[in-house]
Amino acid sequence: MSGGSYDYFYSKLHDMAQDIRARGGCSAASPAERKAFAAHLVKCAEACRAIEWNDSGDGDVREAQLIRECIAPGATLAQAISDAKDAMDSLRAEIQLAEERT
Predict the structure, then answer these.
(1) How much of the chain is helix, strand and coil, in % rounded to 5?
(2) Phi-psi category of 8—alpha, beta or left, where left has phi over 0 and alpha has psi -120 to 50?
(3) pLDDT in tens, 30-69
């Protein structure tokens, strides 16, 4: 198997980046903004490919590195904090239910 668990979305994303580069700018964004965004999409496509291959069982050891190259500094910590708050809320609710039953 070679990917496929996300219908090869990474290749579509990569194609879009190439199309953006080929078309250049428009009235809503400068050519430089579009090229910079297209470069970001290429990085995202590479991360998506690694995710897809890992989820398909083929493996790509670069997944974490490629993801880090696409996200803002501190994004992982912010997500972990959000997840921890959600877990704490669930735990509080379960504790309250347990206390009400006793």
Answers:
(1) 70, 0, 30
(2) left
(3) 888 899 999 999 999 999 999 999 999 989 999 999 999 9
Structure tokens at 29: 């964004």
Q: Parse the chain into domains and list their residue ranges.
A: 1-71, 72-102
pTM of the model: 0.81
Model pLDDT for residues 67-85, shown as the tens digit of each residue: 999 999 999 999 999 999 9
- Residue 6, judged by CB atoms within 10 A of its CB (0-12, 13-18, 19+), counts as middle
Q: Which of 50, 37, 38, 69 lies closest to 6, judged by CA?
A: 50
Separation of alpha carbons 94 and 10, rounded Å: 40
